[in-house]
Specification:
The protein has 12 helices and 13 strands. It has helices at 2-7, 14-27, 38-48, 65-73, 91-96, 117-127, 179-188, 210-220, 223-241, 273-282, 310-315, 330-345; strands at residues 31-35, 56-60, 77-81, 102-105, 130-134, 142-143, 146-147, 154-158, 172-176, 247-248, 259-260, 266-270, 319-322. The radius of gyration is 20 Å and the shape is globular.
């Protein structure tokens, strides 16, 4: 950071180029772009793909509001669908939502897991739809050996501080294998200006600054060890809690050969969720329910009046996050497991 300041190189300079190259290489894509935040990244990807007024984009309601908001601010209509038992977009619900206006599917690679992209690609291929990945929570996760961020026309990542790879403020990224998408997204993030500074289209002011890029370049060196530690914690949770019938845990890191999960979050289900959370709070264990405890379609101010998603509604009476971060020690994870077991034995 001192070197960036000494050079006065704050915007679109070498640190950002280094980060963009690392992002593309890590995800196995041809192009990476740094932008101001993950929401801007999704808007830019949708606009670069030509999605706008009159179009529909299918997205799960079990996601942060930014997924749907990006579709709205690209000028299109978000069509909310169910998640499945793994908390990811339900392919059957997505397929049933396709209409003559549908232009794209936005699979949300949630909690550090990549969706069943075989099913999503089959739907997209059948209906000639684009795939725009919301991979904000999934850097490093894989499905059948392919990285999140490498399946669609473009993909978005978030580098918000709480993410697996986080900067010291808001930050986002884009990946693509399409040179035209990369060129257009590059224009859209910088006021529509080409390499010569000529404005050739309407664009945004959405650039990842070099201070954040410098931080991310350093943190990238520890990313694989960060992921491995999260997978170790997930193993400890499964060993400590897997015998409790009332708890539904995420898939373990070693029992699903199609998925390599990075456990951005550890989202569980309990039929006694509120009682359990209250007891854990008394025991000094903080838990949260994502997104103020609501899926997107339950926020009345967004106007989704006739959306009926019974599985997602039920999930949000049961789901919450146990602590998951690399500051946790093995002893602390064991304490959490002990307190959960004690609750069910009392």
């Amino acid at each position: 950071m001192t070197a960036v300041m000494d050079r006065g190189a704050f915007i679109l300079q070498s640190d950002l180029v280094e980060f963009e190259t690392a992002l593309a290489g890590f995800t196995g894509t041809k192009y990476g772009l740094g932008v101001a935040n993950g929401t801007d990244a999704l808007i830019i990807a949708l606009r670069a793909a030509g999605i706008g007024s009159g179009d529909e984009v299918i997205v799960p309601s079990h996601t942060y509001v930014a997924s749907a908001a990006s579709i709205h601010f690209a000028g299109a209509t978000p069509v909310l669908v169910e998640c499945g038992a793994d908390h990811m977009i339900d392919p059957a619900s997505a397929a049933a939502a396709v209409t003559s206006r549908t232009r794209a599917i936005m699979p949300v690679q949630l909690n550090g897991r990549t969706c069943d992209m075989d099913a999503i690609q089959t739907i997209a291929g059948r209906h000639q739809l684009l795939i725009i990945e919301d991979a904000a929570q999934a850097l490093g996760s894989r499905f059948k050996g392919r990285n999140a961020g490498s399946f669609g026309a473009a993909a978005e990542f978030s580098f918000y501080p709480a993410k697996i790879l986080g900067c010291f403020g808001d930050g986002g990224g884009l990946t693509t294998n399409d040179p035209e998408m990369a060129r257009t997204m590059g224009l859209l993030r910088d006021h529509g200006r080409d390499d010569g500074g000529t404005v050739v289209t309407w664009g945004l002011n959405s650039r990842l600054d070099n201070l954040h890029a410098a931080v991310l370049n350093v943190k990238f060196r520890q990313l694989e060890s960060e992921i491995e530690r999260r997978r170790q914690i997930a193993r400890l949770y499964r060993e400590g809690l897997g015998m409790i019938d009332d708890l539904v845990l995420p898939a373990g890191p070693d029992n699903d050969p199609d998925h390599f999960d990075v456990y951005q979050n550890y989202e569980v289900e309990s039929g006694r969720r509120d009682e359990l959370r209250t007891q854990l709070e008394k025991d000094g264990v903080r838990t949260i329910i994502q997104w103020a405890g609501k899926p997107v379609h339950q926020f009345e101010g967004l106007g989704f009046k006739n959306v009926r998603l019974p599985f997602t509604d039920l999930l949000f009476t049961r789901c919450f996050l146990l602590p998951m971060n690399t500051s946790l020690t093995d002893d602390e994870v064991e304490y959490i497991c002990d307190r959960v077991r004690s609750f069910y034995l009392s």
